[in-house]
Amino acid sequence: MAEPTTKTVTGTGVIETAYGQEVKPPIPYEFSYEAYLTFEDAARANALLSNKEHLNAINNKEKAQARSKKVAEILEAKGYKKPTLENNPDLQLKTLVQVLVAAGRSEEDATQVAKMTLGIS
């Protein structure tokens, strides 16, 4: 029987909050793990989920979807709207500043240019 085939996958993240507190400055990190390339590779490594684990995953997915849908319905009924670039000046400003900083401008300069562009004083 062939050995399972895996590849190393890396990811990154930033820790911005911990235990209900803001982390200043945010802490970037990198992690890696071995990912199976095929279902058969996972089976050869005895890494498949049990029926109970499958059922739990399915039920958790259903619960999350139902909860999300209900929260969205309640918020809409109470007049809360999800901020979008079309309806939220604060989000417009934040997004434009992020773009300008990513393009090499300082945070201060980006904020000034974004405010001028959006007509915010």
Plain-language structure description:
This protein is α+β, with helices and mostly antiparallel strands. The chain folds into three domains: about 1-50, no CATH class; about 50-80; about 80-120. Helix content is about 50%, strand content about 25%. It is built from four helices and two strands, in the order ββαααα. Strands 1-2 form a two-stranded antiparallel ribbon. A hairpin with a 2-residue loop joins β1 (about 5-20) and β2 (about 20-35).
Question: Strand portion, in percent?
Answer: 15-25%
Distance linking N and C termini: 69 Å
What is the C-alpha radius of gyration, as a whole number of Å?
22 Å
**H/E order of the elements?**
EEHHHH
Number of strands: 2
Main pleated-sheet profile: 2 strands, antiparallel
Indicate the mean pLDDT: 93
Low-confidence stretches: none
Strand order of the largest sheet: 1-2
Helix- and strand-based class? alpha+beta
Number of domains: 3
- How many separate helices? 4
> What general outline do the C-alpha atoms trace?
extended
Residues in helices, as a percent range: 40-55%
Strand-helix topology:
Layout: E1 6-18, E2 21-36, H1 39-44, H2 51-77, H3 89-102, H4 107-118
Antiparallel strand pairs: 1-2
Helix pairs in contact: 3-4
What does this entry show, briefly?
The protein is α+β, with helices and mostly antiparallel strands and 121 residues long. Helix content is 49%, strand content 24%. Strand 1 and strand 2 (21-36) form a beta hairpin.
